[in-house]
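Contributing new complexes? Match this layout with benzoic acid.
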Amino acid sequence: MGISEENITDVVIGTLNSENARLNDVMSCLVRHLHAFIREVEPTDEEWISGIEFLTRVGQKCDTVRQEYILLSDTLGVTALKDCIANRKPEGVTEVAVLGPFYRDGAQLLPLGSNISRGTADGEECLVRGRVMTAAGKPVAGALIDVWQAADNGLYEQQDESQPEMNLRGCFLSDEDGFYSFRTVKPKYYPIPGDGPVGEMLSAVGRHNYRPAHIHFIVSAEGFEPVVTQIYDRQDPYIDSDAVFGVKESLVKDFHRIEDAGLARDFGVSLGAWFLEYDFVLNDAG
Ligand code: BEZ
Ligand code: FE
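Output block (do not edit by hand):
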């Protein structure tokens, strides 16, 4: 009878009585882990209240465009871990990386080779090219490649009134041999939003809020699992310290200078422009 430090975890779990077995399992696991955390940390009353106040500020920072809870999950590596577990893929298949908060549905379908940088002069010219392939090495024709990235100033278009609507976004269809290509500006590292409680938490624990330069992709095709991913610049100063733990070795690539005049001419870029080549490998839908 009665609650004690020893029995409270079992008592709380014993109250779970949903007809939904998965809900009971998840809640029971949550209670066990929260109680284990409290037993290990032994927070004082002041520490517990300051934790509650932090979570309250996280909620208050959320609105229709800002999702501070996802940012919290991202910066604690929870999103990246969840993505690894929920998207286990066979060796050789393109790995996933966090979606992030800046994806927008409805980017325009553009002809292969189009420039997704709409009229902003800043940034270094870059050609991105590659193929979409099956795990067995066959080309995937008609795959949809949905691309987005931040501008040279480190901001996505919806964060920045100076950029045209849907700047640096576009959709492409791979050709009959699986090839895709587009022009853009070379991505740069940028800070994730630091003006909220997550920013406070990062400074408090001595962390920065930068992501290494990357381009986001969602690649999908009939009969295959869609992949949400990012390709990263190997030379980026933050490549080994991404604030949201999205970098996987297989997604880190070299940007090269185009030194072949024929290639530059064929793709409508200047000699010396940057060039990124990446082949997506899709997993068959189960
Ligand atoms: C992004 O890469 O767009 C991103 C990912 C997670 C948090 C913030 C931004
Ligand atoms: Fe990003």
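Reviewers usually confirm one structural detail per submission. For this one: The mean pLDDT is 95.
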